[in-house]
Amino acid sequence: MQAAPIQRLIASLSKLPGIGRKTAQRLAYFIIKSDGDYAYELSDAIAEAKKNVKYCSVCGNISDRDPCEYCSAPSRDQSVICVVQDSKDIIAIERTKEFKGLYHVLGGAISPMEGIGPDDLRIPQLMARLNSAVTEVILATNLNVEGETTAMYVARMIKPLGIKTTRIARGIPAGADLEYTDEATLSNALEGRRVID
Amino acid sequence: MQAAPIQRLIASLSKLPGIGRKTAQRLAYFIIKSDGDYAYELSDAIAEAKKNVKYCSVCGNISDRDPCEYCSAPSRDQSVICVVQDSKDIIAIERTKEFKGLYHVLGGAISPMEGIGPDDLRIPQLMARLNSAVTEVILATNLNVEGETTAMYVARMIKPLGIKTTRIARGIPAGADLEYTDEATLSNALEGRRVID
Question: What's phi and psi for B56, nearest 5 deg?
Fold first, then answer.
């Protein structure tokens, strides 16, 4: 009995990741009942983002320009490339304000379970970028099986080129208690221990 | 450094209830990267719903027509009006397939904490509907302090008219264990006990 435009909106919102039917309904009613122009503002923001956002032909990041803001910034260190699975990972790394080099987005990780092989990732595009100006490739894929497999695969591909290849550190997260840390993380942390100067 | 259209979309999505910045970011990237026309479909669904959905002048429900689908359906029992706080509550009641009468949406509940008094609710509109054809008003506001206060207030307003006014039952939810039921619910359940024929 629910009105057709409401049903359509709920159906459309339900397709978003992590949004079930009940949440979609709550969001739909919020949007419809919102005062002023919020609904149109949201509608426009979606259409505009979809229309104006493109993939960077160099690194595969999503951006409103090509090459993207990182690839086109002369201030970024051109000698280091940080390899990530997803554009979102770039945002996370940028928040640390620690890294000033370039990025390369693979677009996922090797996962036999999901049928994703090396050929489905932007690995050839990475290899094509590895000229003599590049002195280090940091592998910042996820710390799970898929991410580790991908990092190992990419490292093996780069090895013949003689470029330094590093992997982000495994260890105990900031603020964590040893008592509640799982064995795998704890043994990684022990193995990766560093000398205090 | 994030591209402006992405930032705008994230900011707009963050205004949705229960959607924090991180979730908004996840949704934004999903929308942008979605294949085909999903982003435009969602954008259109929002704008269309906002444009075409109106408030029913009789019951206050949101619908694509006025009077709404319930108020205009001759098959609904015109003698019973179920009073709810919100349009969403109608959907919940409809799912039970138990109720075939009409609805009245108050648009909230009396809440001194939030500065919502009886005058902010659609109570006068309810009173105006209570003609001789109405034989029962079911008060289906929430079972919390605000909902109970509102139910009591509306019941007192209706009393002089001599129309039967009922309150939905307090009790233990289906599937619940007594062991884990709070005292207030349990004492409501005891108080509301019914004879088994």
Answer: -70, 130
pLDDT value at residue B101: 95
pLDDT at B188: 83
Architecture of domain A62-167: 3-Layer(aba) Sandwich (3.40)
The beta-carbon neighbor of B94 closest among A1, A23, A30 is A1
Q: Residue B1's pLDDT is what?
A: 64
Q: Is there a shared CATH topology between the A4-52 domain and the A62-167 domain?
A: no
Note the pTM of the prediction, 2 decimals.
0.73
Chain B residues lying within 8 Å of A5, measured CB to CB: 45, 48-49, 52-53, 64
Q: Over chain A, what is the mean pLDDT?
A: 91
Task: Collapse the DSSP code of B20 into the 3-class scheme (helix H, G, I; strand E, B; otherwise coil) and give the result.
Answer: coil
C-alpha to C-alpha distance for A178 and A7, rounded to whole angstroms: 49
Dump pLDDT digits (tens) for B112-169. 999 999 999 999 999 999 999 999 999 999 989 999 999 999 999 999 999 999 998 8
Structural domain spans, chain B: 4-52, 62-167
Q: Which of B18, B53, B94 sits opposite A32 (nearest CB)?
A: B53
Amino acid letter for position B76: R
C-alpha B93, offset from chain centre: 9
In contact, A80 and A134? CB cutoff 8 Å: yes
pLDDT at B193: 81
State chain B's mean pLDDT as an integer. Answer: 91
| B48 chain-A contacts, CB cut-off 8 A | 5, 8-9
CB contacts < 8 A, A to B, total 158
Pairing of strands A136-139, A77-84: parallel
Q: Does the structural domain B4-52 have CATH classification 1.10.1040.10?
A: no
Does ipTM exceed 0.95?
Answer: no
**Contact between B63 and A3 using a beta-carbon 8 Å cutoff:** yes
Q: Residue B63 above 80 pLDDT?
A: yes
- Token readout for B48 is 């269309």
Q: Does B66 touch chain A (CB under 8 A)?
A: no
Judge: A53–B3 Cβ closer than 8 Å, yes or no.
yes
Amino acid in position A139: L
